[in-house]
Write a structure and sequence with these properties.
- The chain has 158 residues and is α+β, with helices and mostly antiparallel strands.
- It has helices at residues 3-33, 46-73, 127-132, and strands at 88-92, 98-103, 111-114, 117-122, 140-145, 148-157.
- Strands 3-4-2-1-6-5 form a six-stranded mixed sheet.
- The longest helix has 31 residues, at 3-33.
- The chain starts with a helix and ends with a strand.
- Keywords: Elongation factor, Protein biosynthesis.
- GO terms for molecular function: DNA binding; translation elongation factor activity.
- Pfam families: GreA_GreB.
Length: 158
């Protein structure tokens, strides 16, 4: 899998997420400033609630823009010997089934379809990301979520 194409696919998904956030922020701002939300008495909090929503949506837009910036600035390693940011890692589960992960600076949990492959973005803040950090091909990756322990072997790092 070409990591430049993968990054472009991820950026397309993040830009779509940004477009939705911008649209939601605009609608929330229109609602907050609409004549219908003007308080009729001191206990009428519709305008206040609408302004809180508009503020939250504006923060969401900023977060989306930051994710896009981080992904654009991500340095993609050519042939990493260990798991680092920008690595494309294939893990084998106990049934020898391969699972593909991309170590990203943000957007952990995002599922991406690139060509015929499906993968998930993982950050080093996640339990799986922490367990994979600096591991090499052949190393075992083990982490727990709640009472369940996951165990994988690293098959490849690109």
């Amino acid at each position: 899998m070409n990591k430049l194409e993968l990054r472009q696919t991820i950026l397309t998904l993040l830009q779509h997420k940004l477009a939705i956030a911008v649209s939601s922020a605009q609608r929330a701002m229109e609602s907050a400033t609409d004549e219908e939300t003007v308080p009729e008495h001191k206990y009428d909090t519709l305008a206040l609630e609408a302004s809180y929503l508009a503020h939250g949506q504006a923060m969401r837009v900023q977060e989306c823009e930051e994710e896009i910036r981080q992904m654009k600035e991500l340095v993609l390693p050519d042939t990493p010997e260990k798991v680092v940011l920008g690595s494309l890692v294939t893990l084998l589960d106990l049934d020898e089934q391969p699972r593909l992960f991309f170590l990203a600076p943000c957007s952990g949990g995002l599922k991406v379809e690139c060509g015929e492959e499906s993968l998930m973005l993982v950050t080093f803040d996640s339990p799986l990301g922490k367990a994979m950090r600096s591991k090499q091909v052949g190393d075992e990756v083990e982490y727990s979520v709640g009472s369940f322990t996951h165990c994988y072997d690293i098959e490849s790092i690109h």
